[in-house]
Amino acid sequence: MKSINTKSAIVHFNENIYTELNNYIKSTKPSKIFILVDTNTHDACLAKFLARVETGDIVVEVMEMPEGEDHKTIDICTGVWEALSEYYADRKSLLINLGGGVVTDLGGFVASTYMRGIDYINVPTSLLAMVDASVGGKTGVDLGNLKNQIGVISEGSMVLIDTSFLETLPKNHMVSGYAEMLKHGLVYDKSYWHTLLNFENLDVLALDKMIYDSVVIKNKIVSKDPTEQGLRKVLNFGHTLGHAIESYFLGNADKVPLLHGEAIAIGMLLEAYISTKTVGLLDQEFKDIEEGILRTFSKVEISENDQKAIINLLKYDKKNSHGKVKFVLLETIGKPKINCEVENGILLEAFKYFNS
Ligand code: GLY
C-alpha cells in the first residue's frame, strides 16, 4: 500500500513499516529511543514490534502506563515526563507510541512538550487509532471527565500502521474504531459509507483497504486545515453530543463507561436527527444512517436527568465560541455544515426520538 504524506508526517502501511522505521532510525540517529506502551500493548504488541525494529547500539527504554481512558491524565504525563528526564532523554531522543488512541494522544502530547518538543512516531494498535487518533497531530489528555481538553496540535514524523495488531483487539474496540470510519463516510464520501455498511462480509484485505481509505479521507481534510479553523471541524460530526455523552458516562458511577466510538455512534445518530430538523437532511437519508448505525451499535438508556446533564456538558465543547455551542450537521450524506447553533428544544426532541 502506498504511503500517505500528511502535512509534516508520513503514514506507512503494513509491508513497508519496519523497513521505513529502521531506515529512519539509521538516518536520524536518535540519542535514545523510548517506547510508550500501556499494560495491554506491553503484553500483546511489544515483543512483536521489538522483534522487527533494528536499533543498533542505541539504548531503548520501555515506559508502561495503565490502560484505559481514565488514565489519559496530566498525572500520567507527569510520570512519563519524569521517566524521560530520569533516563536523560534529550532533544535528540525519539519517542515511539505503541498503542491505541490513549497512548498515541498522551504520548504525542508528552513528546510535543518535553523540552519544548522531541521527535515522535505513532504505531497505532487499535482500529480507532489507525483511522483517526494517530493521524493529524491532535495530541492531549482529558481534564477530569472532559475529553481532550488539554493538548496541542503537533504531528510526529511518522505513523506506522500494521493491521496485524488488530488480530488481538477485542471486538468492542474494533466496533469503536468502526464508528470513526462511518463518520469519514458521512462527512466526506457517500460511496465509502455504503462500502462500510457491508463491513461484516469483508475479508482482511478489504478491511485493510477500508482503513487505508479512511486515512486518505482524514488526510485530505486535515491537510487543507491542519489547525481546525474551518473545514477540519467536519471531523467533529457526532462529537459534540458524543463527547458530552462519553464524559457523562465516564464520570457517573451509575453508568458503565462507553468506548469513544460507542459514544460517537450515539452522537452521530442524534446529530443526524437534528440535521433533519434544521439543515434539510432528508428523512430517507436519516433512516439509512439510523439503520446503518444501529446495525452495529446498541442503544443505551439516556434518561431525562441524563439528558439535562449531557446538555449542560456541551458548555465545555472545544468548538464553542462566544458562549455558543456549535454543531456539525449534515445537509446530505457527504455534505456537512459547520458552526450550526441548535435550540435546546430540538436537542431534547432528538433524545426523545432516540429513546423511542
Ligand atoms: N479526530 C478529529 C480530528 O482529528 O480532527
* H/I helix tally: 14
Radius of gyration using CA atoms only: 20 Å
Shape: globular
> How many domains would you count in the coordinates?
2
Any overview of this molecule?
The chain has 356 residues and is an alpha/beta fold. It has 2 domains: 4-169, Rossmann fold, CATH 3.40.50; 174-200 and 212-355, Dehydroquinate synthase-like, alpha domain (Up-down Bundle), CATH 1.20.1090. Helices cover 48% and strands 17% of the residues. The chain is built from 14 helices and 11 strands. Strands 1-2-9-6-5-3-4 form a 7-stranded mixed β-sheet, with helices on both faces. Strand 7 (138-143) and strand 8 (146-153) form a beta hairpin. The termini are far apart. The model has no long low-confidence stretch (mean pLDDT 95). The chain binds glycine. Glycine binds next to loops.
Keywords:
Rossmann fold; 356 residues; alpha/beta; 2 domains; single chain; Dehydroquinate synthase-like, alpha domain; 14 helices; 17% strand; two-stranded antiparallel sheet; binds glycine; seven-stranded mixed sheet; globular; 48% helix
